[in-house]
Amino acid sequence: KRGGFRHFMLKEIYDQPQAIEDTLNHYIDAQTLTIRRESMPFTKEQAQQVENITIVACGTAYHAGMVGQNLLEQLARVRTHAQIASEYRYQDTVYSANETLIAVSQSGETADTIAAVRKAKNNGHRIVALSNVLGSTVAREAHAVMYTLAGPEIAVASTKAYTTQVLLFEILALDLGNLRGLISERELQDCLRELLRLPGQVRSVLERAGQVEHFAHSMRMCRDVFFIGRQLDYCTSLEAALKLKEISYIHSEAYAAGELKHGTIALIDETTLVVATATQERIFLKTLSNVEEVRARGASILLITDKEIQNEGQFQDIWPVPGMRDIYSPIPATVYVQLFAYYMALQKGCDIDKPRNLAKSVTVE
Ligand code: F6R
């Protein structure tokens, strides 16, 4: 069942090119380079009228929602806010007219996410679900559903469900951007053509698993890891920190790179590993200057980037993200950090597929 892999998690990491390809095929017609209208949750009219989107989810799915927030604002210019479902359900929120709620849930059975959906429904909002399980509760409660075609995910730590959720947000944001007149047909085709290359790009990251394993081995004594990045790279950092702590029990935190100096930098010393993700052209140099700040405090630094680096010797390691549009980088960058978490946990002898205290589906509050 594990297809020759030592753990389900590793198998599912390697399932990703296929999961991405299946999801792409479902939503995109590669022949005509168009998005299949019948698979999308917004009609042209709904897309033009939507004013406010709230994304709710828990854990890893929330991190996909953070990517969604960034992409929907950037590409579709819709005001979007990602919120943790357990917070949303008890918040005395101020709503505006024409609200849409997007609930992201691999299982579709997470209690807090279901409660958030029911609250929004009671308030008359339109509900769109992103789920991996056909006919799950969240999917059934929603007015429209987008499914990830990741196949069953067995390991407690989510991998292929996450990258395919991010992929759905890429497709949704491009579609809304196009329907709202911000992305021309021609631009959309260029974006889709490139998106269809994603399975190959993910495969090229998987081919570097040996490098990741080697680096993880060199960091085996490490007790604190900080993941830093800005914007989409911050989302990847959040997901990286969660993956590492949940399966290896190593203390890890994610910080928006510019926030570090407002307190957390006090924790950085020669024993700390800082993993910087820098794939976004617009803010690349800003993140690198934060890297300089932590280097000055003696931290070891791993850089994940698709950009050319001059002073390679200053990094403990560099993991190259295949060159694509910056909006697509979170997917290959995430595959690296999944592998990193896996190999860190492996050398500590952790129960990778069933980490302590965790359940695959959190159906109670
Ligand atoms: C972490 C992980 C969890 C889930 C969360 C939500 O690797 O898997 O954080 O993402 O419990 O689960 P779903 O997506 O099923 O609602």
TrEMBL record:
Q: Where is the SIS domain?
A: 43-182, 215-355
EC class (word): transferase
GO terms, molecular function = carbohydrate derivative binding; glutamine-fructose-6-phosphate transaminase (isomerizing) activity
Provide a GO biological process annotation: fructose 6-phosphate metabolic process
Chemical reaction(s) catalysed: D-fructose 6-phosphate + L-glutamine = D-glucosamine 6-phosphate + L-glutamate
Q: Where is the active site?
A: 360
Q: Name one GO cellular component term.
A: cytosol
Q: Where in the cell is it found?
A: Cytoplasm
- What EC designation does it have? 2.6.1.16
Q: Which UniProt keywords apply?
A: Aminotransferase, Cytoplasm, Glutamine amidotransferase, Repeat, Transferase
Superkingdom, taxonomy of origin: Bacteria
Main subcellular location? cytoplasm
Could you give the subunit structure recorded for this chain? Homodimer.
* Biological role: Catalyzes the first step in hexosamine metabolism, converting fructose-6P into glucosamine-6P using glutamine as a nitrogen source.
> Protein name, please?
Glutamine--fructose-6-phosphate aminotransferase [isomerizing]
Which residues of the parent chain are present?
Answer: 273 to 637 of 637
